[in-house]
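We include the pair:
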Amino acid sequence: AIAVSETIPAGSPLYESARIQIALNQSQLNRTDEAIKTLERYQAEYPNARDALIALADLLRSHDRFKDAVPVYNRVLAETGDLKPHHWPLLYARGISLERAGEWPPAERDLLQALELEPDQPNVLNYLAYSWIDKGVNLPRAKSMIEKAASQRPDDGAIIDSLGWMHYRMGDFHRAVETLENAITLMPQDAVINDHLGDAYWQVGRRLEAEFQWRRALTFDPDPDVRRSIEQKLQFGLSGAEQPAEPAGASAQKS
């Protein structure tokens, strides 16, 4: 596919799409640095190429280079002008990048603005509500937001995980178990959902099942913070572990 895209000449109306496709193919082949350089070179040659700029930001975000992605999204949004409802994905993507880079206040502003543009968007509802629940703030609004997202996407494991985690954080551990068991049938290989279900099992006294879920979560290559937390729980139990704040499906959110 890369070889075919390389044949499209610079003067073609398909040239920008071809450069983007080359970068995506390189990324899929784990040639991330090459992919980034492909888009950066194109940007240097064609600085007004908006689609390539968005592709670069998304590529950086999808490979956990959140701090690098933010200024690229900043440029895209600065060049966008007045934001319309169809621009919500840009604010959502920058909000995720800011949140994952540890910049919560501006991330929250972006997610709230994305909701102003598209009030019923389930991904934004879920991400913002999960973040609030994990921080223990705005719980009534977060609850209604996650319930709205879950009603729209009852088969989305990440959203159902957030619903279960909401029950957990509000102390309804038995309901959390039931909901998280549902989430895990939808996304059985998600490390965060397995971790959350382990926590819920622990809270209702099902300690062996909790340890099983935590060990299972480790087999799905969790992010370093999640891995460290799980390893602490396996060694010291739930009360002795530090809890990460990553939502389920974070790898999917990156894409």
Summary: Residues 64-119 form one domain. The first helix runs from residue 2 to 6.
